[in-house]
Amino acid sequence: MEILLIIGIIIALAGGVLSGVVASAKNRDPLVWGITGALFPLLGLIAIAGMPMAQTMQVLSPTKQNDHVEEGVIEASEENKKEGILWLGFLIFILFVLTLTILWFGLKQ
Fold first, then answer.
1. Does the global pTM surpass 0.70?
2. What is the rounded CA–CA span in Å between residue 49 and residue 62?
3. Which of 1, 25, 69, 105 has the highest Cβ tally under 10 A?
4. Domain coordinates of the chain in residue numbers?
5. CB 18, CB 37: distance < 8 Å
6. What would the pLDDT profile of 36-83 be if each residue is shown by its tens digit?
């Protein structure tokens, strides 16, 4: 039983690190995606790998002394946010069903 716990921890750490690295390469928040990848290793990695690169744009931000250019991330539209929340809910539901199934068959043994 202890070996399964060790394997689970290794898989969670690997999923978190890989998801964070992929998120960083796609200009996404590596901390959020790292945590997501640690909690849901395979699904987190698939989700971030399937996402497009976050686009950056130059925004002029005038100041009193001089004008300078800041880089920022373009915000997603409301429709994209709603779609993302629906997908996240669907993934959480699937993981919940899978967890219950694993527990059910694990308790029967």
1. no
2. 36
3. 25
4. 1-75, 77-109
5. yes
6. 988 988 888 888 888 888 776 555 555 555 555 455 555 556 776 777
